[in-house]
Amino acid sequence: MKSVRKTAAKAAPKTAKAAVPSEPEWRLYWLAYNVALETDVQELLVTLEIKAYTAWEEVKGSGRSGPHLNDEVWPAVNALCMFAAPAAWQPRLAAAVLAIRQQFPGEGIKLIIQPCLGVV
Fold first, then answer.
1. What number of H helices and E strands is found in the chain?
2. Which tens digit of pLDDT belongs to each residue from 64-113?
3. Nearest CA to 19 among 88, 84, 89?
4. pLDDT tens-digit series, residues 36-74
């Protein structure tokens, strides 16, 4: 039985390289929010031209706006969106999230930022 590494190495073209971001610094952004804000978050992604992202629906959690457990006691539920973008975008993203938070103070939205070493 062939190993996965050997098979993958043979399948990959000799010129294939990892798709490392061209910017000097990239970030991995996590956007956690109440599903009631879905339209606003989608508008944010379109406005900022974020075309590549991963999203999770019906995410449970608790934060400033209280528990969101999608049950009889705590019926609210969150969603989560993750994407990589240049570090230079951080101020624009933070400002957009704060604007949504100010517009809808009773709903939860949070931007979490991590270093991103690359994307393959």
1. 3, 6
2. 777 777 677 777 899 999 999 999 999 999 999 999 999 999 888 999 99
3. 84
4. 999 999 999 999 999 999 999 988 888 777 777 767 777
**Distance between CA atoms of 52 and 46, rounded to whole angstroms?**
11
User: What CA–CA distance (Å, rounded) separates 78 from 60?
Assistant: 6
| Alpha-carbon separation of residue 6 from 97, 98, 119 (angstroms) | 45, 48, 22
What is the domain partition of the chain in residue ranges?
A: 16-116
* Number of CB atoms found within 10 A of residue 51's CB: 8
- Check: CB of residue 87 under 8 Å from CB of residue 39: no
Q: Roughly how many angstroms between the first and final C-alpha of the chain, as a whole number?
A: 27
CB atoms within 10 A of CB 26: 21
Residue 92 · residue 27 · CB < 8 Å = no
Alpha helices in 48-106 (DSSP H): 90-103
Q: How is domain 16-116 classified at the CATH fold level?
A: Alpha-Beta Plaits (3.30.70)
Model pTM score: 0.75
